[in-house]
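Posting this for the archive.
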Amino acid sequence: MVYVFLFIGLFLEATGIASCAWILAEIYKYVAGFQCDKVYIGTAEEQEAKDLGYDKEVEHALVKLPGFTTMPEALSKLMSHKILL
C-alpha cells in the first residue's frame, strides 16, 4: 500500500500537475473527517465574546541564567511594547 501511494505521489510530482503533499493532505482530511477550524475553536467573533483574555497584560517570567544578572535595557524596552505580547 505504501508503495502505491509513493508511486502515485512521485508520478504527480514528476508531471508537475500538483504537489503530492496537497493531494495526500486532502485525501487524509476526507478520510479522517477533519473540519474547518471555526467548527473546533469558533469564529473570531465567538472567541471575542468568550473573553478568553488573550490581549491582557502579561508579565514576562524570565529564567535567570548564570552569568546574566540583569536584563539589558534595550531588551527590557523591547519586551514592554504591546506588539510582542
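Residues 2-15 form the longest helix (14 residues). The chain is about 55% helix and 0% strand.
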